[in-house]
Design a protein that fits this description.
The complex is a heterodimer of chains A (304) and B (264). With 304 residues, chain A is an all-alpha fold. Helices cover 72% and strands 3% of the residues of chain A. Chain A has one domain: Orthogonal Bundle (MetI-like fold), CATH 1.10.3720.10. Chain A is built from 13 helices and two strands; from the N terminus they run H-H-E-E-H-H-H-H-H-H-H-H-H-H-H. In chain A, a hairpin with a 3-residue loop joins strand 1 and strand 2. Chain A starts with a helix and ends in a 6-residue tail after the last helix. Classes of the chains: A mainly alpha (304), B mainly alpha (264).
């Protein structure tokens, strides 16, 4: 827009919309209002709920009872820590798997690029829950995957690493982390693809001309250029994975319960709203801290 | 060995794609299973029973119908709201831009369990009962951001000179929008709408916080059924959705490819 204003000096047909200052606000208003009322405001009612005392039947009164946070953390810090740990592991594995695939789609796929992109989003075409249930079939105790893992002594290895409890794969830490990695992989691939697609391959060639080894070229050219995608993909994988409890519920055991499941149970079964709200709020603060760090470094324009 | 080293990256990429697609294949294969007992986890024998009677499991088609209805309302509303935001972001300069970006991004970056529970506290406070309306409101909320991203990507590729040309030729802003801008942005809007529909159709966690026993959506049905052994019909409907989505996407790709060829 600035170029138009400067460059053409007195061009008669300048875009009309430049003069209509209220138009963008009118376009933004309904959607942003919806998000303010049903996304932002609930964060405050959540915080308020956590500081109330009472019960579902007699109602709640705001008492500013901060001790609920101490209770919640004391009781459920293992679940919180476990969620961060599982989500972190899943994020690392997702990055390791997604990077080669995103790189191939962006730089090497040629006429197969669109096909591969469709295949990346194709898992979404079947319901998330149904696909997670399918992992129960794949990893079932009598299935070929478990048998192969036993024969190759992978199960012994996983057992030594304390990722499974007995000779089978299902209902274990391993299954939960594998499920989380699988479920959030597309959220890692797509931002990585977007930033690797913009990478000019001539830069890599230039590095190689200047006697960089393939590894050096990757470390000093490709990797730094893909960093926005890495950071966005990491956020979009880690955050939903940390709050997820479908994988831990369907693929795990009683030792793999994640924080989301505690919040769900406390809210909907135990009906301890303040405790559940406090846990949920802690999770929210954790996420806000992560996003703020990211925005400080990268600004907001790359976000959406 | 040299061949392997040269193609290592492509082989890894293909293996990752296989890892991503195996569950879909398993769902499809086990839709033809004839399980013994309640659990459809081990292969028994080939059968088309579930395909000839997809509504055979009690309550499954009611929940499917509800999910389709909620998905339709939520995706249409979210598409309208999100498209307007995307145009504002892609075409105008205005104050409060970074705040807007942040408000769009946050729902995508907030765990569903936080959104679901916080929305429940809001609805408790204002006295809106759990059920279909609450679920629809929630779905619109988390779909808007994804529509904005899809449409904004398309708007960014449009040449603003086309709109200027229309204006030069005497068309009013409304005419320009209807005849030039909207048709050009339509693929992005359609992609956003389809994404919103599939997100709404697929959501379990947020829905679970805001639904009532009389508003059991399809994912809630699957969750409930999984506790006591999901019927084969779940696989049938999962496979049907996969095929329908695949046809829509491939048709879209082919249409775009043909239009691009016709243009060049």
């Amino acid at each position: 827009m600035a170029e138009v204003a400067l460059g053409t000096g007195g061009a008669p047909a300048r875009p009309r919309r430049r003069h209509v200052g209220w138009v963008p606000y009118a376009l933004l208003a309904p959607g942003l209002l919806w998000l303010l009322v049903f996304f932002a405001a609930p964060m405050f009612t959540l915080g308020s709920q956590s500081l109330q005392e009472g019960n579902v039947f007699d109602g709640y009164v705001f008492t500013g009872n901060v001790s609920v946070y101490a209770d919640a953390l004391q009781k459920y810090w293992p679940h919180l820590l476990r969620s961060v740990g599982y989500a972190g592991a899943a994020t690392v594995f997702a990055l390791l798997l997604a990077y080669p695939l995103a790189y191939v789609i962006a730089q090497k796929a040629g006429r197969f690029q669109n096909l591969m992109l469709v295949l990346v989003v194709a898992p979404f075409f079947t319901s998330f829950l149904i696909r997670t249930l399918a992992w129960r079939t794949i990893l079932s105790d009598t299935g070929p995957v478990t048998e192969l893992a036993q024969r190759l002594h992978i199960t012994d290895l996983l057992q030594a690493a304390n990722l499974i409890n007995n000779d089978t794969l299902l209902s274990s830490k391993f299954a939960v982390i594998a499920g989380l990695t699988y479920n959030f992989l597309p959220f890692m691939i797509l931002p990585l693809y977007a930033s690797l697609d913009r990478l000019d391959h001539r830069l890599v060639e230039a590095a190689e001309d200047l006697y960089a080894s393939p590894f050096q070229a990757f470390r000093h050219v490709t990797w730094p250029m893909s960093l926005p995608g890495v950071v966005a993909g990491t956020l979009l994988t880690f955050i939903p994975a940390a709050g997820d409890y479908i994988n831990s519920r369907l693929l795990g055991n009683t030792q793999t319960i994640m924080i989301g499941q505690v919040i769900d149970t406390q809210f909907l079964r135990v009906l301890d709203y303040p405790l559940a709200a406090a846990l949920s709020f802690v999770l929210l603060l954790l996420i806000l801290a992560l996003v703020t760090t990211y925005v400080r470094r990268a600004g907001t324009e790359e976000l959406v | 060995m040299r061949w392997l080293r040269r193609h290592l990256l492509v082989i890894v990429a293909i293996l990752v794609l296989v890892y991503m697609l195996i569950p879909n294949a398993v769902v499809a294969v086990f839709s033809f299973n004839n399980p013994v007992g309640r659990y459809n986890y081990t292969w028994q024998e080939f059968s088309v029973d579930a395909w000839t009677n997809p509504c055979g499991a009690q309550g499954i088609c009611d929940s499917l119908g509800l999910s389709l209805r909620i998905g339709l309302v939520a995706s249409l509303t979210a598409t309208a709201l999100g498209t307007m935001i995307a145009f504002a972001l892609g075409r105008y300069r205005f104050r409060g831009r970074s705040g807007t970006n942040l408000l769009i991004f946050m729902p995508m970056a907030t765990p569903e369990v936080v959104m679901g529970s916080s929305l429940l506290t809001l609805f408790l406070m204002i006295g809106l009962p759990s059920g279909q309306l609450a679920v629809t409101i929630a779905h619109i909320m988390f779909c808007i951001s994804f529509v904005v991203v899809a449409v904004k990507a398309r708007v960014a590729t449009l040449d603003p000179r086309l709109e200027e040309a229309a204006a030069d030729l005497g068309s009013t802003p409304v005419q320009t929008f209807l005849r030039v801008t909207f048709p050009l942005a339509f693929p992005g809007i359609l992609a956003g709408a389809l994404l919103a529909f599939s997100l709404s159709f697929d959501d379990y966690i947020i829905t679970n916080f805001n639904a009532s026993p009389s508003s059991i959506t399809f994912p809630m049905y699957v969750w409930g059924a999984a506790q006591r052994g999901a019927p084969v019909q779940v696989n049938v409907i999962g496979t049907m959705m996969f095929l329908i989505a695949l046809v829509v996407v491939v048709a879209g790709q082919l249409l775009t490819a043909r239009r691009d060829r016709a243009r060049s």
